[in-house]
Design brief:
The complex is a heterodimer of chains A (243) and B (138). With 243 residues, chain A is mainly alpha-helical. Chain A has twelve helices and three strands. Classes of the chains: A mainly alpha (243), B mainly alpha (138). The structure holds iron/sulfur cluster (2 copies).
C-alpha cells in the first residue's frame, strides 16, 4: 500500500501575481506564458537592471514578490505594449509592471515623476510643471501678439479660450507654453488655414498626465475628469490631444 | 496611439500627411514600423524618472533604427518622443534633427515663421521674416 499523501503545513500564499490577475480582464492571460521570449527580443528595456519582460513575468509567476515589487526596472519599462503585441498569448506584462509601480511606497518612487503628478494637483490647469491657467493665457497672448505684429498675413490670427460650442477643444503639453511658446504657432496657423473651429480651455489645458506614470490611480482619474469636464462644459465635439 | 488605441489606420494616416508634405520619394520608414515599431523611451514617465543613462540605453534601439534609414529629419507627433529623440541624436552623435509634425506641415504650406524653426538645420532656419513665410494675400 502506498504511503499516505504528504501534507505540507503552510497554505499556498496569495502572490503579487495572483492579486494582479484578479484585477485584469481575462486575468491578463498572465498564466498562459509559453516562455518563448518573443516579448523580450523586441523590448527596448531588455537588459536594463538585468531584467527583461519574460524574466519579470517568470519571477512573478514563481512568487518572487520581493524582487518583482522592488526592482527599479518597472520605471524603465515605458508600458509601450510592444511585448503584448508580439506575444502569441497576448500576455499583459505592462499591466503587471503598472501594478508593481503602484506597490512602491510613495517616498521611494522616482521623485521627478511623483512631483510632476503633485504639481498637476495645484490648479485646474492640470499642468505637471505647476503652470496655472493664468500662466497659459499670458504665454499664448504674448506669443500671439508677436505673431500678429511681425508676420504678414497673420495680423488677425485668432486664438480663443473657453469658447462655447467650438467644434474642437485643443490641449497642449505644458512645455510648449512654458518653455518654447513659438512651437505653438505652427499649430495655430494650420488650424487657421484649415478653417477649423477650435478653442483652448483655461481648465484642463495641459495634455500630460504624470499621475498615470506614478501609479497613482486616484489623482490620475482626477486629472482625466478635470479635462473631460472642461471639454463637456464648452460642448465641444472633439477633444484634440496633442500629446 | 497606434498599438493602444487607433491601430494601423492612424499610422497610415500620419504617413499620408507626411508624404503629402515632403513628397513620397523623401519619406523613409523605419523598420519595423507601425504596430511593430519600437518605443523611443520618452514615455511612461521615463523622462522625469531620473534614470538618464538607462533611458538613453533604452533609446539605443530607436537610434539604430533611425541611423539605418539614413534620414536627416525625424518627425515625432508627441512632445515626449520629441524630447527623447532630440536627446538621442545629441547623445549618440547621430546628426539627425527632430521636428514636430506641425513644423513640417507648416513648412510645406509656406507659413512657417523664422522663430518657429529652432529644430530645423541652418539651411532651413536662417531666413528673415519676409523670405521665410509666404502667408496668404492680404
Ligand atoms: S512572448 Fe508571451 S508567451 Fe512568449 S515568453 Fe513572452 S510573455 Fe511568455
Ligand atoms: S511594455 Fe515594457 S516590457 Fe513590454 S515591450 Fe514595452 S518596455 Fe518592454
Amino acid at each position: 500500500m502506498a504511503d499516505a499523501a504528504l501534507k505540507l503545513g503552510a497554505e499556498p500564499k496569495e502572490t503579487f501575481m495572483d492579486k494582479v490577475r484578479n484585477l485584469l480582464p481575462e486575468e491578463g492571460h498572465l498564466n498562459l506564458c509559453l516562455t518563448c521570449g518573443a516579448c523580450s527580443s523586441g523590448c527596448p528595456a531588455t537588459g536594463l537592471e538585468g531584467m527583461d519582460p519574460r524574466k519579470f513575468l517568470r519571477m512573478a509567476a514563481l512568487g518572487m514578490d520581493e524582487e518583482v515589487t522592488s526592482t527599479p526596472w518597472v520605471w524603465m519599462c515605458t508600458m509601450c505594449t510592444r511585448c503584448v503585441h508580439a506575444c502569441p498569448m497576448q500576455i499583459n506584462i505592462p499591466q503587471l509592471v503598472f501594478q508593481a509601480r503602484k506597490s512602491w511606497p510613495e517616498e521611494k518612487k522616482p521623485r521627478g515623476i511623483v512631483q510632476s503628478c503633485k504639481a498637476a494637483m495645484i490648479d485646474k490647469a492640470t499642468s505637471s510643471m505647476g503652470a496655472t491657467s493664468e500662466d497659459f493665457v499670458e504665454s499664448v497672448e504674448e506669443t500671439l501678439e508677436q505673431v500678429r505684429s511681425q508676420q504678414r498675413g497673420y495680423k488677425d490670427l485668432q486664438v480663443t479660450f473657453d469658447r462655447k460650442g467650438a467644434k474642437y477643444f485643443l490641449n497642449q503639453n505644458s512645455r510648449e507654453p512654458m518653455a518654447e511658446p513659438d512651437e505653438m504657432v505652427p499649430l495655430w496657423k494650420i488650424m487657421h488655414e484649415a478653417g477649423a473651429d477650435w478653442t483652448y480651455g483655461t481648465a484642463g489645458w495641459a495634455a500630460e498626465n504624470y499621475c498615470m506614470f506614478a501609479g497613482n490611480d486616484e489623482e490620475w482619474e482626477k486629472i482625466v475628469r478635470t479635462k473631460a469636464e472642461a471639454v463637456d462644459a464648452l460642448g465641444c465635439e472633439y477633444w484634440l490631444n496633442t500629446e | 496611439m497606434v498599438r493602444k488605441t487607433f491601430g494601423e489606420s492612424v499610422a497610415d494616416d500620419m504617413r499620408y500627411v507626411l508624404k503629402a508634405c515632403v513628397g513620397e520619394e523623401n519619406f523613409v520608414d523605419t523598420w519595423p514600423n507601425k504596430s511593430n515599431n519600437f518605443c523611443c523611451g520618452g514615455g511612461g514617465g521615463f523622462l522625469q524618472s531620473g534614470f538618464k543613462s538607462a533611458r538613453q540605453e533604452y533609446g539605443k534601439l530607436k537610434h539604430d533604427q533611425i541611423m539605418e534609414t539614413g534620414a536627416k529629419y525625424v518627425i515625432t507627433p508627441c512632445h515626449n518622443c520629441h524630447s527623447q529623440v532630440h536627446d538621442l541624436s545629441h547623445h549618440f552623435e547621430g546628426g539627425y534633427e527632430c521636428v514636430h509634425l506641425w513644423t513640417v506641415m507648416a513648412l510645406s504650406m509656406g507659413i512657417l515663421g523664422p522663430d518657429e524653426r529652432v529644430y530645423l538645420d541652418a539651411s532651413l532656419s536662417e531666413c528673415g521674416i519676409n523670405e521665410c513665410t509666404l502667408p496668404p494675400d492680404e
